[in-house]
Design brief:
By secondary structure, the protein is α+β, with helices and mostly antiparallel strands. The protein has 9 helices and 4 strands. Helices cover 50% and strands 8% of the residues. The longest helix has 34 residues.
Length: 221
């Protein structure tokens, strides 16, 4: 299997951490945003949305990070990241849906506007979007904080793909102008995820966001 990623992508980190925890070895192919790799005809044949990550398994191309994590877990049955029990899976699916539609949707908008736009793309944040996402995020952070009261993990007593999904914006969380102090359980959860060796192993230095690490091959169109 091959995993097509862009260095520093939080959604790619989510998949790389799960693969690492499962002990699954894949060839990692690094793409470069600024060189247009994600807009090349070759890459768009794999993923017409032009986004990473993409998992290549023979003639099967799978995109969307949560879908990839489900797939690799199902390819390695018996793991605890995505257990077979229907209720446990339903609970995991609940939080995978919630993080996409609510918590990380708003945190993603806020981090893009206040962190990536000015520092990576040299653009001015949209003040309206910043104010709106901050207000919406308050409600979602409160939901997450209440859920994590007395819990170390999103579902059950151990790490699942729901934990990696909810926490995947960890690297930019504290760079946003959002007051996390009312949400102590959320802060503690993110600290636990930072300490997870498989998550930590995927981190990129801030200045490596669009660079290919030495010794890795970049995508060729």
């Amino acid at each position: 299997m091959q995993l097509h990623v862009a260095n520093g992508s939080t959604n790619c980190r989510k998949v790389q951490a799960v693969l690492g925890r499962l002990g699954v070895e894949v060839e990692t192919i690094f793409l470069e945003y600024m060189k247009g790799d994600l807009r090349s005809a070759a890459f768009l044949r794999m993923n017409p949305t032009g986004k990473v990550p993409v998992l290549e398994d023979d003639d099967f191309f799978l995109w969307e990070s949560n879908a990839i994590n489900r797939y690799v877990c199902d390819r390695h049955p018996g793991n605890t990241l995505y257990p077979a029990d229907p209720r446990t899976r339903a609970d995991i699916e609940r939080w995978l849906s919630w993080e996409l539609a609510h918590f990380n949707d708003q945190l993603g908008i806020l981090s893009f506007q206040t962190v990536l736009k000015p520092t990576v793309f040299g653009e001015t944040p949209d003040d309206h979007l910043v104010a709106w996402s901050m207000e919406m995020l308050k409600g979602h952070a409160a939901v997450l904080d209440r859920h994590l009261d007395g819990r170390d993990h999103m579902v059950g007593d151990g790490l699942t793909i729901a934990d990696y999904a909810v926490a995947h914006l960890e690297q930019v969380k504290d760079l946003t102008p959002f007051d996390w102090s009312p949400y102590a359980n959320v802060d503690a959860f993110f600290e636990r995820m930072r300490a997870d060796p498989h998550w930590a192993a995927t981190a990129a230095a801030p200045d490596e966001f669009v660079r290919v690490p030495a010794g890795r091959r970049a995508f060729a169109a």
